[in-house]
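Cross-check.
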Amino acid sequence: MSFRLSISTYGEGFPLLLLHGFAGNKSSWDELVPRLAEFSRVVVVDLPGHAHAPLPANLGERGFGEVVDALAECIQGPMDVLGYSQGARLALALALRHTKHIRRLVLESGTAGLCPEELRQKRREDDEAKATLLEQEGVASFMDSWKKLPLFATQERLSHEAKKALEQRRKSHSASGLAGALRCMGLGVQPNFWPLLCELHLPTLLISGEEDTKFTDIAQKMLRELPLAWHVVVPGCGHSVHLESPQQWLEATSVFLKASPENDRVTDACGAPHMREEGVKGV
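Predicted model, tokenized:
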């Protein structure tokens, strides 16, 4: 192991590892941790390149694997894993690479990767361009453009306090750290996990926002490949469900994590496994 990540823990119960998205950090979960800690031992971590977390020795796909192995070092015994966006992709990789350590998996606004290879290469080039821009113009300028992406348009509905905290979090990182994160954890360096989904026999909850049609469609495709999965589509929000609709996010997540997969309470809240195109509206 070339590097280690530091963790913080809250509460008691079955452990739950939370993995934030790009330009987030441990504080991304501050509003949710107290509620999750009512029934879980919540474990939060700053992902590599964020805050003061170190980057792996290598970049590209090899670096991606080193990040996944570093996260595995944070797990002491069986654990539930929940990830958002970039964190969801890492959570999926962790579940595939270290399956015996994972009990349940929650993926919010995530994907199993890009294919064919030409799309991965194009995304690597795009992420390299973003990394170079970060290094040349700095975090503040980069984030002023980042927040204007259509993917984050629904975040404009957040409260003034929530938007201020999000802005501070995004601009708290170093340019070199975020550039390194793009080069070792970007979507272009993530392996194509689509062919492996059928082998992942873990209870998996997929969460997406109704207005984020791209990732809702991706979740439906993942749903058809995963052996034991549920999909919750939360109305009235976009990519960042845990920020935009925290109460509905908590309801869906809590029911899934507290109940066994065979329990009717899971089916009541999340629908039956292997739901098809209609998905679930709300929780």
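Strands lie at 7-10, 14-19, 40-45, 79-84, 102-108, 204-209, 229-234. The radius of gyration is 17 Å. Passed to J.P. for a second look.
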